[in-house]
Write a structure and sequence with these properties.
Helix content is about 60%, strand content about 0%. By secondary structure, the protein is mainly α. The chain contains 13 helices and no strands. The longest helix has 27 residues. The N and C termini lie far apart (about 60 Å). It has a domain of about 170 residues: Hypothetical protein af1432 (Orthogonal Bundle), CATH 1.10.3210.10.
Length: about 240
């Protein structure tokens, strides 16, 4: 049977996409044996990588948060809901809001490829490489508007307004808005929930005080003002999904 060049290219491309996620799954399984259903779901997602990207991002995010051994299993939901509120306050359209919600499922997916010993120390070079490692995880996916936003969030959510962040030391308005939103909601969640690299937990009000002090340093002052003025919405999400 004569081969169809376009069909062959598509099959090879899809194989490469699936291979990327297969490699990630191998990394996870080699480090520790996790018997939870999330890994089984991830296997299914790999097998249908050409299917629903949103479902794939959610499943990857579930494994990432499980891998971080958080005391709560609702982190992805909280982050998505926080981001939706901030996105609406910043006037993003419904498609952007939806895409940002799903992007927050995997904003820290690169942590899966950081050695366990380094995941507990945010100041190591290995830890700070995780946004770039996360970008690599999505490298072979078809770049829809969702995947493009997810990549932007992954790459820029640790950049700081004053240029002191990583991995690229972006400053001010050179940091994309999606990344800025991801940064502030991630910081709030980090302060108010236990993570492997940040075990201390603050109250929502104390966390707000910390965020206010970071105005013009970690975050755009206007973004901090929006967060502060609408704080009760974020607090309600925290209380609901704790």
């Amino acid at each position: 049977k004569p081969y169809n060049p376009e069909e062959l290219k598509l099959r090879v491309y899809n194989h490469l996409r699936i291979k990327k996620f297969s490699e990630l799954l191998t990394d996870i399984q080699e480090e520790d044996s996790c018997s939870s259903s999330n890994l089984c779901h991830l296997k299914e997602a790999i097998e249908i990588a050409i299917g629903s990207q949103k479902k794939l991002l959610e499943k990857l995010g579930n494994v990432a948060h499980e891998k971080g051994k958080e005391t709560t299993h609702n982190s992805s939901k909280r982050l998505g809901e926080y981001a939706k509120v901030m996105a609406k306050l910043n006037g993003l359209n419904s498609k952007e809001i939806d895409n940002l919600y799903y992007s927050m499922s995997i904003y820290d997916i690169g942590l899966l490829r950081v050695p366990s010993a380094d995941r507990a120390n945010k100041n190591t070079k290995a830890f700070k490489s995780y946004p770039l490692l996360g970008l690599d995880v999505l490298a072979e996916l078809e770049e829809t508007t969702l995947i493009k936003m997810a990549k932007e969030v992954i790459l820029t959510h640790q950049e700081n307004w004053d240029g002191s962040g990583y991995p690229n030391g972006l400053k001010g308005e050179s940091i994309p808005l999606y990344g800025q939103i991801a940064s502030i909601v991630n910081y709030f969640d980090e302060l108010t929930s236990s993570r492997l690299y940040s075990p201390d937990i603050l109250s929502s009000n104390d966390a707000l005080d910390v965020i206010k002090r970071e105005s013009g340093v970690k975050f755009d002052a206007d973004l901090v003002r929006l967060f502060t003025d609408n704080f009760e919405q974020f607090k309600a999400i925290k209380d609901k999904w704790s």
